[in-house]
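Example 3.2
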Amino acid sequence: MTMPKNAFKQALLDGRQQIGLWNALTGPLVAEALAGCGFDWIVIDTEHALTDVPDTLAMMQAMAPYPVSPVVRPASNDVVLIKRLLDLGAQTLVVPYVQDAEEARAAVAAMRYAPRGIRGVAGMTRAGRFGAIPDYTQRAEEELCLIVQVETAEALTRIEEIAAVDGVDGMFIGPADLAASMGHPGELMHPEVVAAIEDGICRIAAAGKPPGILTGDAGFARQCMGWGTRFTAVGMDLSLMVNAARQLSAAFR
């Protein structure tokens, strides 16, 4: 059996725009329903959702028949969490709150087996097709993709040094935390925040890494794409459901 290809990573290498969605609602039924909606990638969020490591297995399995790339966000930049998600078959991780090059190197090390990293080795994992990929430990790194989140004003000042870390495949700007760190909590469209996002996207691209972002504002998403994002999440399942329900309720009042 051969190593499964990481379509998301290949698309980033090819410079193709990838349109994504955030999956905050736990469970395989929601994940499967979203997987058939035409997005290129879907984030399974375990940081700001009830979803935990074991839940991701069923959710990735539910997405597997569809032409969409599951991307998992661990709760933190933690070697044990990362190891468990990789063993379950996650090929792309978006690691939150990476503040500097040292933290980026720690995430890279957690993604790689020794001697290039510190990922623990287990023979019978879903990632290695339960031993059916004989050279999995030698070749796993080829298809793994690490996205680091730069989501504070401080982290944005270090874009170039983080981008220079070998093993970082992309950089994702988190607007909500960025706004809060700049003294504008909840004001994602504050002019200073928007300017920082534009500057960040341009500098990430100039540093040779594909930039990404999440926004539920369609107009701003297109702005970000114009500035250079290559993986752009344009909504979240929970927000889409609640907003549609509110609109339906209002239509009958």
